[in-house]
């Protein structure tokens, strides 16, 4: 992360200063963009039920977050990325304050419905993912249970962080049951399901074959979708 150090008054504002500030912002935005796939929708870009209008939003292309201006779509719509460059006056001669030349100064990219930009693609390429937020997770081995004739049948309790009422109402449990000290690769005859769920724990009913010192092992997550 780059930052300016203001050691005193009269800080010199130069092209280097502005470049420093721009690089800092771009590095953060670029990191977010690179973590996404091409055409992944960041927000918005919602199509109405009739399929005739799309809202404002943003999507990712080549690691850049492209703002999108919505509008009518028409038949077989495409999205296009336009790069808009504005010019301004630059003093290109340090020996003369009047030596001003018009040069490119401001660049911005925006996506719209249409064609003719620097990149065009069918609207069908847009990708929309529900973001899964993990509230809590863990792995637990139940060393204190023993099989009866090679099969364990019973309840397994998983404790987790205390959930708020909102988190409890809007989250779900994801889990996978396996064995510790696994000696067999096929989970033949294994059955399990959630019996009870509370703010700080849940109980599973499990029926699982075990060999020797194998014990039930649970990988679990409490997740919320947004």
Structure description:
This protein has about 230 residues and is mainly beta. Helices cover about 10% and strands about 45% of the residues. The protein is built from 2 helices and 14 strands. The chain has helices at about 15-35, 165-170, and strands at about 40-45, 55, 55-60, 65-70, 70, 80-90, 100-115, 120, 130-140, 150-160, 170-180, 190-195, 200-210, 215-225. Strands 1-3-4 form a 3-stranded antiparallel beta sheet. It has a 3-stranded antiparallel beta sheet with strand order 7-6-8, with no helix packed on it. The protein is elongated and about 95 Å long. The two termini are about 30 Å apart.
Key terms:
single chain, 226 residues, mainly beta, 3-stranded antiparallel β-sheet, 11% helix
Percent helix among the residues?
A: 10-25%
- Count the E strands: 14
* CA-atom Rg in angstroms: 29 Å
Provide the spatial order of strands within the biggest beta sheet.
1-3-4
Please write the string of helix (H) and strand (E) elements.
HEEEEEEEEEEHEEEE
Largest sheet: 3 strands, antiparallel
Structural class: mainly beta
What oligomeric state is this? single chain
What's the total helix number?
Answer: 2
Separation of termini?
29 Å
* Proportion of strand residues: over 45%
Shape annotation = elongated
What's the mean pLDDT score?
88
The unreliable regions are none
